[in-house]
Amino acid sequence: MEYNSSREELIIPEYGRHIQNMIRYARNIPEKNKRQEFVETIVGLMMQMHPQNRNLEDYRDKLWRHVFQIAEYQLDVDTPSGYIPTPEDSRKRPDRVPYPTKETKFRHYGHNVQKLINKAIKMEDGDKKDGFVQVIGSYMKLAYRTWNREHYVSDDIIIEDLEHLSGGKLEVIEDASLDNLSRSQMRKGGSSSSSSSGGRQQRSSGRSGGRSGGRDRDRSGGRQHRRRKKN
Q1: How far is CA 29 from the centre of its chain?
Q2: Contact partners, residue 148, CB within 8 Å, separation at least 6
Q3: pLDDT by residue (tens digit) across 103-142?
Q4: Residue 222 belongs to some domain of the structure
Q5: Based on the domain organization, do 84 and 145 belong to the same domain?
């Protein structure tokens, strides 16, 4: 009895040992046209093993790269793209993406707020810029309430944070309300809840009215019938 621990190590285990054995067998096929047809059949089998990935971009090219990797890059066949993978391809690593370290003090507002502030700084002074700054302040207050529901936040705190994030280049106009976004969400939530509760009340009152009205008619009709019978 042969155990997997004594067999040859799988290069890419997700395809199984049979696919690896067939690819290794294809290396020894002398005729190139037969070898090409045999490897294309193997790629078709590999695609059937993961049909959910069939519509992904460059999925077929990925399968061909895996075929060459399993064959240890000792396979003389043509690929659909024309590019023959090399051992260096398997050692490539994506470029490192630096983690953002800015705005650690006001991280609860999010990185997009800083982008909006930078955009507002470049705008010309006027009503459009003042309205845009007010929208930014309203969004900052909404974000603050989302992450700090147990703490009250005033407009003065938001205005102070906005001035700090903008380096003192942005100011909210006097008597400006920063609750516009919160109120709009409350109206949306309140209207839906009130309409649903009103509908439930109407349905419940209709059902109760229908039942009580039917009982009242039965009772009154029964009393009238008994009165006629007595007379």
Answers
A1: 48
A2: 108
A3: 556 778 888 888 899 999 999 999 999 999 999 999 998 8
A4: no
A5: no
The neighbour count for residue 165, using CB atoms within 10 Å, is 21
Lowest mean pLDDT among 25-34, 45-54, 73-82: 45-54
Residue 192 lies in a domain: no
Please give the residue range of the domain that contains residue 166: 107-177
Asked if residue 192 has pLDDT above 90, the reply is no
Mean pLDDT within 35-39: 95
Question: pTM for this structure?
Answer: 0.44
Q: Within a 10 A sphere around the Cβ of 116, how many other Cβ atoms?
A: 18
- Angle at Cα 31 formed by Cα 26 and Cα 35, nearest 5°? 30
Note whether 158 and 130 are same-domain residues.
yes
Which residue has 């005033």 as its token pair?
154
- The two structure tokens encoding residue 12: 């890419």
> Would 101 be classed as within a structural domain?
no
- Among the residues of 72-179, which ranges form H helices? 87-90, 111-122, 127-147, 155-165
pLDDT score at 104: 57
End-to-end CA gap in the chain: 105
Total of domains in the chain? 2
Residue 141: how many other CB atoms lie within 10 Å = 25
CA distance 72 to 52: 27
130 shares its domain with 79: no
